[in-house]
Design goal:
The complex is a heterodimer. Helix content of chain A is about 35%, strand content about 25%. Chain A is α/β, with parallel strands linked by helices. In chain A, strands 7-8-9-3-10-11-13-12 form an eight-stranded mixed sheet, with helices on both faces. In chain A, strands 1, 2, 4, 5 and 6 form a five-stranded antiparallel sheet that branches. In chain A, helix 8 (about 185-205) links the parallel strand 8 (about 175-180) and strand 9. In chain A, helix 5 packs across helix 7 and helix 7 (about 155-170) packs parallel to helix 8. By secondary structure, chain B is of the alpha/beta class. Chain B has two domains: about 45-65 and about 85-225, Rossmann fold; about 250-325, no CATH class. Chain B contains ten helices and twelve strands. In chain B, the strands form two sheets. Chain B has an eight-stranded mixed sheet, sandwiched between helices. Classes of the chains: A alpha/beta, B alpha/beta. The interface between A and B is large, with 47 and 45 residues.
């Protein structure tokens, strides 16, 4: 049973230069204990798709003209703000890329950590403090009592991200949205944080929505994934299938053009051109200009879903492109 | 390699004096960003410089260009004692060594047309010769895949990838022998990154350029570099041809670093054993005594806390690393 189901979600920004269709009709679902990877390049809509339904983006300019986001069957988009507030930061928690900008520099770690416990779980200050300490030691912070009294600038990037994870986990969320959680970190620290996420998920069975541009991170952590491009989903399926039996020209090209540390490559095949301007994309496939297998129909209509196998879907008109 | 190096660096140090106090700026501590680094860069060679943030790779790059004056050491550029040059003599040598920066949004002047941007270095060095130079600029822009129509345009009219192509053209305008490229593809998307890497590689071969390619991304460096130097807290801990570095890394830090890079293949990535490092890089202001890596090293011994190892050759090969424990 899906814990979160997104159906035909659209998120448009109304700007002076026109309507930017950041998310242009996407659907997928996630189950408890599962990790869903959302991969895409900048402007693909991978972050906006999550931030929009949680109402974390200013509106206007953001408008959601269409779509449903069902959390345990209840449509988040139709909820009153007060009801959403009991879910956001509580049952659905988030961690972001830059832990320095998501922590308040004026407040101690402790006062920021106990806040969600007091607000969402109605704990007393003393109980909240105890739980926050436990959460800090759970994420591998050596002296939690001391850390609680420190300010964010006293920590390194990796430690701050641990604090963010601790904060996101205090309310025992059912879904954790991790938006580029390790992009600002060095690789050795990234490995530590990814291991931590893996462990915690095993213990708590929470679902993780992992947003990243790094295919390596997805390969290690995700069970299933969606590939996004210019506001559209191009392919969805189990990680194993997408990496080894992709049925979309963009996914394949993206995988081929990623430099690898384990293979000696003489020449990387490239995708020509660049990502389209989102205010200019029409009804066709946004990859049309760059696709080597394009046909006439691709320019005028975006394809409907085509089932490849159980759980594996592609959005491409061309059936045989290798 | 027997040729004379294009760039030869010996015992280079970049130390920053940290000052505190409001009225009397007293030097209270020294940050050793680059601490005793030596290497050679040969004609037509790409040397990758990798390491995590704060390891001194960018400081080293800036010192090689004399954008930051080194504290001590020696740099030979095409046989000249680069650090002893001043004024006119320095200016005459500068065209030989050029740079490409990470952020093409910040490194191009938004108020200058592409033509003005590309002309400026030529005029500054008295090399602008009117129509011939103009032709060269057009050819150069064609070569980097932008086209001469770009000459009259401004940077904001281009995407990140295109700007980086323009930055490459600007670095090539003076026909340098050496290019220092500091994270030139780090701000680009994967699909664009591959284009720029291939372009750099082609041009490097065509012009027989020497490049110091600075990056935190070990996969990118593996693709573009011939030899790779791994830095940790201001020092080179391993220096080796790329096939050796990735297949038989010797220094425990190199091993851990390579094992931490995620591989875009779930069949491999989900079952990989990593060498886990404790903690994070210590501050370069008070680096650990002895071997700077000993606080995180999985094989450190008592002696590593006392003495700092020097770079030594591995089994008579050209692979060098600095560790007491690996024989």
């Amino acid at each position: 049973m899906a814990i979160l189901e997104i159906k035909n979600l659209k998120a448009h920004f109304h700007t002076r230069r026109g309507v930017v269709k950041a998310v242009n009709g996407i659907s997928y679902s996630i189950e408890p204990g599962q990790t869903l990877g959302i991969v895409g390049e900048s402007g693909s809509g991978k972050s906006v798709s999550q931030l929009s339904y949680l109402k974390l983006l200013p509106s206007p300019p953001l408008k959601i003209p269409e779509g449903e986001v069902l959390f345990h069957g209840e449509n988040i988009l139709a909820m009153p703000e007060e009801r959403l507030r009991t879910i956001r930061g509580n049952k659905i928690s988030m961690i972001f890329q830059e832990p320095m900008t998501s922590l308040n520099p004026y407040l101690t770690i402790g006062s920021q950590l106990i806040e969600p416990l007091i607000i969402h779980l109605k704990k007393s200050k003393r109980d909240a403090w105890k739980e926050a300490c436990a959460a800090l030691s759970r994420v591998g912070i050596a002296e939690p009592e001391k850390a609680m009294k420190s300010y964010p600038h006293e920590f390194s990037g990796g430690m701050r991200q641990r604090v963010m994870i601790a904060m996101a986990l205090t309310t025992r969320p059912e879904i954790l949205i991790a938006d580029e959680p390790t992009t600002a970190l060095d690789v050795t620290v990234q490995a530590q944080i990814l291991d931590l996420l893996r462990e915690i998920q095993k213990e708590t069975q929470m679902a993780i929505i992992l947003i990243t541009h790094d295919l390596g991170v997805i390969a290690g952590l995700a069970d299933k994934m969606v590939v996004m491009y210019a506001g559209r989903i191009f392919e969805e399926g189990p990680v194993e299938k997408i990496f080894h039996q992709s049925e979309h020209p963009y996914t394949r090209a993206l995988l081929r053009s990623t430099p690898r540390v384990d293979v000696l490559q003489d020449k990387i095949p490239v995708i020509g051109g660049s990502i389209p301007d989102l205010s200019q994309v029409g009804q066709g496939c946004p990859f049309y200009e760059r696709c080597e297998f394009r046909t006439d129909i691709c320019q005028s209509t975006f394809p409907t879903s085509r089932k490849i196998a159980h759980n594996h879907e592609t959005f491409c008109h061309v059936e045989k492109f290798q | 390699m027997s040729a004379t190096p294009s760039l030869s660096v010996r015992s280079l140090k970049v130390h920053y004096k940290l000052r505190s106090g409001f009225f009397n700026f007293k030097a209270t501590a020294t940050l050793k960003a680059v601490d005793d680094v030596s290497f050679d860069l040969y004609p037509g060679e790409v040397l990758g410089l990798v390491g995590e943030s704060g390891c001194g790779k960018s400081s080293l790059g800036r010192a090689l260009l004399r954008l930051q004056e080194p504290t001590s050491g020696n740099i030979q550029l095409g046989g000249l004692d680069f650090l002893s040059l001043h004024g006119e003599a320095l200016r005459n040598v500068r065209p030989q060594i050029q740079m490409i920066f990470q952020d093409p949004y910040a490194s191009l002047d938004p108020r200058m047309t592409i033509e003005a941007t590309l002309r400026e270095p030529l005029e500054a060095h008295g090399l602008w010769s009117g129509i011939d130079s103009q032709k060269n600029l057009e050819q150069l822009l064609d070569r980097v895949g932008i086209g001469k129509k770009a000459l009259a345009k401004y940077p904001h009219e281009f995407s990140g990838g295109q700007r980086q192509r323009i930055a490459i053209a600007r670095a090539l305008v003076l026909r340098p022998k050496v290019i220092i490229a500091d994270e030139p593809v780090s701000s680009l998307d994967v699909s664009v990154q591959a284009q720029i890497l291939n372009l750099l590689k082609e041009i490097q071969k065509e012009l027989h350029l020497s490049i110091v390619f600075i990056s935190h991304n070990l996969a990118v460096v593996k693709y573009i570099a011939d030899r790779i130097a791994v830095m940790y807290l201001g020092k080179i801990v391993e220096l080796a041809p790329k096939d050796h570095l990735y297949s038989q890394p010797q220094h425990p830090y190199t091993q851990a670093l390579i094992s931490a890079v995620p591989i875009p293949d779930p069949r491999i990535e989900k079952f990989r054993k990593r060498i886990e490092l404790r903690g994070e890089i210590p501050s370069p202001i008070n680096p650990p005594k002895g071997c700077a890596f000993h606080t995180r090293c999985p094989i450190a011994q008592e002696s590593c806390k006392q003495h700092a190892p020097e770079l030594k050759n591995y089994r008579n090969s050209s692979q060098q690393f600095s560790c007491f424990e690996v024989k």
